Amino acid sequence: MDLVPALEEPLKKVLGPPTAKVMAEHLGLHTVGDLLHHYPRRYEERGQLTHLADLPMDEHVTVVAQVADARLHSFASAKAPRGKGQRLEVTITDGSGRLQLVFFGNGVHKPHKDLLPGTRAMFAGKVSLFNRRLQLAHPAYELLRGDTGESVETWAGALIPIYPATAKLESWKIGKAIQTVLPSAQEAVDPLPGSLREGRGLVSLPEALLKIHRPHTKADIDDARARLKWDEAFVLQVALARRRHADAQLPAVPRRPSPDGMLTAFDARLPFTLTDGQRKVSREIFDDLATDHPMHRLLQGEVGSGKTLVALRAMLAVVDAGGQAAMLAPTEVLAQQHHRSVVEMMGELAEGGMLGGAEQATKVVLLTGSMGTAARRQALLDLVTGEAGIVIGTHALIEDKVQFHDLALVVVDEQHRFGVEQRDALRGKGKQPPHLLVMTATPIPRTVAMTVFGDLETSVLDQLPAGRSPIASHVVPAADKPHFLARAWERVREEVGNGHQAYVVCPRIGDDEEEPKKKPAQDDADKRPPLAVLDVADQLAEGPLTGLRIEVLHGRMPPDDKDAVMRRFAAGDTDVLVATTVIEVGVNVPNATAMVIMDADRFGVSQLHQLRGRVGRGSAPGLCLLVTEMPEASAARQRLGAVAATLDGFELSRIDLEQRREGDVLGQAQSGARTSLRVLAVIEDEEVIAQAREEAVALVAADPELTGLPGLRTALDALLDDEREQYLEKG
């Protein structure tokens, strides 16, 4: 947070152009403030060393260790044919393990003089494997002597900060640069209101910056981190609270369903009763729709929890109140699927203006990019006249040509596939801002919902409707136990023999139009490319699934072909559908009971959970087989084991988040190096985020313009650079 002029000073002026250039290009640091907020990743204690035994391969590491021995060898090579080549091998130790350092050629002289047995130093380099032993080749090093004035000063405290570094800039050089700018920390203006800081016993911002970079004790580090976490959580929550406050000031038309309208008729048609969860969430939505400012609600529910039904009831309520509802799907396959299932659920209520249509019926139209001209013209006409109360479509709904008679509600399916700009463009189609309901089947931990979708109220559907069957999931280790894979194909044949159907999912399509083949990196040379739909379909048809009716489905097929394949599969004319993740969302074929996911380790945890939700949608139990060639000890196998062990999507989303960096999950809401989370961990710091949200809501309610808090306003400006401002504006 570049707070005041001293902290806005460009690093070029303070550190000189060469260092500043590396910092800008490799670490995204441009000003003194940026550098002060580049926090240590961890700390080394003088007497306690990094575990050399745990070093990660191919990563750039910094270790503190002691030289055990150093030997100079001569050898002959093309460059030094008469045995004049020199190689210095230094072994360092930290008590937990040993590590070899190697220096060649003219580079041996200085380290040979410096690195005597017993010497302690910091070493930085890339970990590689040579003769089955870990080594660092030509590492940079800094002796920890404490004899010259500078060293004593630099390595003062007992704790040595280790910074996120790059090959171009070692951790200790970053440390020295920070020492240079640290006096400016005194001028940092505090964004937290004084009452909040005192009430929660937090240290001031200048003190926190000093303690995080030059701690004398572990308590210093804890104080600093506790304070800096609050900064991140609070400033972001204030931004979101202001967004919600501004939305609440927007006008919207209240939409109350008529007591004996389409919604009542629809409920009477349902062959089952709603779950308690569906009733509760529907009430929350209807309460929002009845207010005179726009609803902004996130509906998250497990795969198969009945989100579409809840959304349809909301759309019917709006149509009853004289408005129109639009549902946006991320793909044509999904838009067609939603259109089919909505029309089926509504029956004669979807036949407005047609013979046999119910008295209070409306028209449900589909609008996609690949529709024929005549059908498209008719759909556009139905929208502008108000003849169609409900429209379901893809991005095509957002085009300038599309005009609504009175757009009252926008339902967005699978938000994470849908750009903010698109949500914004559709919102602009209403005479007044329409109500917005965002649906996702990816369970989002509460804290992520508060951090990323903090401008939306959240409803959760966590019960599965009666009649949904359990799904058994198993990992199939194809490399260790090939007979398990053979058994997997037998299980598919058994399911088909019992009158059911199966999916086989692959990571790639496999035609030649895919992106040009990159030369595999050195380490990937032995990795085969991911399995492809077209290859696997042929192998299955000629091998283990011969005689079954197999079809393929992928994103590069023409829309009509895709739809035809889906229709045949839904009708039971196909036994096995070999597909990419195009089936991940919303495809509903109750008779499909088995799914085999090839190269399952190449998919994320949430994605596997989504895919698995395509089976077990009828009364027969589902089976999901996760095929992988990864070795048992690998992280990928542990991830698959976690997916197989639980059907709880919220539990899996926590695992997913713990394994990935927060930045990936928070995506666009945390884009930009300056603004991404530095010390706040979304899962671990649940309490801080929840408390920061409460404080932020209270503060914004009392003073939306933040008139008395110049420090907070400055911090917000730094957080909400143009890109973020737009993101939240449109969110």
The structure class reads alpha/beta
Helix content: 25-40%
In total, how many beta strands?
Answer: 21
Number of helical segments with 4 or more residues: 27
Task: Give the biggest beta sheet.
Answer: 7 strands, parallel
Provide the spatial order of strands within the biggest beta sheet. Answer: 11-12-10-13-14-9-15
Mean pLDDT: 81
Question: Which outline best applies?
Answer: globular
The low-confidence runs, each spanning 5 or more residues with pLDDT under 50, are 148-157, 515-526, 661-676, 725-731
Share in β-strands: 15-25%
* Through-space gap between termini: 23 Å
Radius of gyration: 30 Å
Please write out the topology.
Blueprint: H1 5-8, H2 11-15, H3 17-27, H4 32-36, E1 42-45, E2 60-75, E3 85-93, E4 98-104, H5 109-114, E5 120-130, E6 133-137, E7 140-143, H6 149-154, E8 159-162, H7 171-181, H8 194-199, H9 205-213, H10 218-249, H11 262-269, H12 276-289, E9 296-301, H13 307-320, E10 324-328, H14 332-346, E11 363-367, H15 373-385, E12 388-393, E13 407-413, H16 420-427, E14 435-440, H17 446-452, E15 457-461, E16 471-477, H18 482-497, E17 501-505, H19 533-542, E18 550-553, H20 559-571, E19 576-579, E20 592-597, H21 605-612, E21 622-628, H22 635-645, H23 649-659, H24 662-666, H25 686-702, H26 710-719, H27 722-730
Parallel strand pairs: 4-6, 9-14, 9-15, 10-12, 10-13, 11-12, 13-14, 16-21, 17-19, 17-20, 18-19, 20-21
Antiparallel strand pairs: 1-8, 2-3, 2-5, 3-4, 5-6, 5-7
